[in-house]
Design brief:
Length: about 120
């Protein structure tokens, strides 16, 4: 009986199945890179982190502006309701209602036409 060598040797090359070009959709400072060139990456893998502080600041500013506009709108609504009540009881004028109606519309414009 004769032993047969079952090991086979082959020469070959590896090639990437897909190549990807990465482009940022937002600007910012990278705070982390979680891969190296040539690594295999899969959908959903974390590749980079970007410093969130500039975006958090912008969000806080926009939130503050919205809060101010909301408060102005609430005040304008209350003043308009009071002016209408006064007009109905003959203690207020049509001009006062018109002014309060105009005031009530102003915060919408300042807040970017929100409803």
């Amino acid at each position: 009986m004769q032993d047969i060598d079952t090991r086979l040797g082959f020469l070959g090359q590896y090639a990437a199945v897909s190549q990807v070009e990465l482009r940022a959709q937002v600007g910012g400072t990278l705070t982390g890179i979680f891969f190296r060139g040539g690594d295999i990456v899969r959908k959903g893998d974390l590749l980079f982190t970007i410093d969130p502080r500039p975006y958090e600041i912008t969000l806080a500013e926009a939130t503050a502006q919205l809060d101010v506009a909301t408060a102005r709108m609430e005040l304008a609504n209350r003043q308009l309701d009071r002016a209408k009540d006064l007009e109905q009881s003959d203690a207020g004028s049509v001009e006062n209602v018109d002014q309060r109606t105009s005031d009530q519309r102003t915060p919408r414009t300042a807040a970017g036409q929100w409803s």
